[in-house]
Amino acid sequence: MPAPAPPIIGAKSYLIIDAQTGRELASLDPDSALAPASLTKIMTEYVVFKALQQGQIRLEDEVTISEKAWRMPGSRMFVEVGKRVSVQDLVLGMIVQSGNDASVALAEHIAGTESVFAQMMNQHARQLGMLSSNFLNATGLPAEGHTSTARDLATLARAMIAEFPEYYAWHATKEFTFNDITQSNRNKLLWRDPSVDGLKTGHTEDAGYCLVASAQRDGMRIVSVVLGTSSERARADGSQALINYGFRFFETRLLFKAGEEITTARVWKSANETSRLGVLEDLYITVRRGSYDKLESTLDIPAVLEAPLATGQPVAELKINLGEQEILRTSLRTLEDNPVGSIWQRVRDSISLMFE
Question: Could you give the CA distance from residue 189 to residue 236 in angstroms, rounded to a whole number?
Fold first, then answer.
């Protein structure tokens, strides 16, 4: 039986995916270009974390607050012009308090100006495959042409979780105090659902109320992107409904571990007569709950494989079907080197191949 239709949540656009596999679980116009409001700051964070990862900046670096950063309207962490604030405090002020002042201060620290930083945001977006997004600032404040999509934001959230787990954990912070001012995280699901540990809210008049949320239950992680709802409650209730739907009707399983032998193949003219085939990274699959035991696999291995074959070289294909529906297709790779054999082995196999 197919999964029932997802809940109706009153959003302009939404998408829920499994974070491990990227499998789409439900969607509504996920490729519509919309104003992302402060969801933009997820991209700002990503660029900041890349700079930290590459050693260009450090968490303890002191950032001098410019007048532009200090004057930013909207949500703020209340930094003061001319004062020096650590990168870590600015990041927390951006994540927890959605500080526009913190976002601009970080952008200027990394790129000199916010406009140059926006170019960096777009470069990273293209590298991630976010081909329908265009960022013009680091905050998400309204700007003509500043847009993204639910699909692109899900891609970004998935990358954030996978690449920066140590920094991603900050998204579960419920409140942050700076300059003797304590502000609460605007993601109300952090209080409502203990499995939710991120990610970011957004709101402008044009964008409506938006939320990228992520939750993990029993080893399965879901990312939900909801854009254009009418209120804080609508975005929280809608996101919660989609997250519950994903966990209730889908499951993610580990099919094969990295380096695990899935099958073997004859390698002609090789020092090794056979080679183990498998995958180089853990292979997961997301399916409708209860259908895992009904999956069927097929292997497509060329009739003749000849040396040399290097470790990791794709030589065959694995297909996973549920009935007539193809669920997954991936390459099988050699798990060891298969160098050219001796003259005797090559001559023997050449003769044998004549009769294959």
Answer: 6
38 is known as an active-site residue: yes
In the structure encoding, which two tokens stand for residue 240, read together?
């919660």
> Which one of the listed residues 98, 103, 148, 275 is annotated catalytic?
98
Question: Of 13, 27, 41, 188, which is the active-site residue?
Answer: 41
CA distances from 136 to 34, 40, 90, 139 (A): 14, 10, 20, 9
Query: Quick check: is 98 catalytic?
Result: yes
User: Coil, strand or helix: which one is 28?
Assistant: strand
Determine whether 319 is an active site residue. no
Q: What is the mean pLDDT of each run of 10 residues along the chain (356 residues)?
A: 88 98 97 98 98 98 98 96 98 97 98 98 98 98 97 98 97 96 96 97 97 97 98 98 98 96 95 94 95 95 94 96 93 96 91 84
User: What's the alpha-carbon Rg for the chain, to the nearest Å?
Assistant: 25
- Say how many C-beta atoms besides its own lie within 10 A of residue 296's C-beta: 10
* Catalytically annotated residue among 27, 38, 103, 133: 38
**Reported pTM:** 0.93
Q: Are 97 and 73 in contact (CB under 8 A)?
A: no
Q: Is the peptide bond before 308 cis (omega within 30 degrees of 0)?
A: yes
> For residues 354 and 249, what is the distance between their CA atoms, to the nearest angstrom?
53
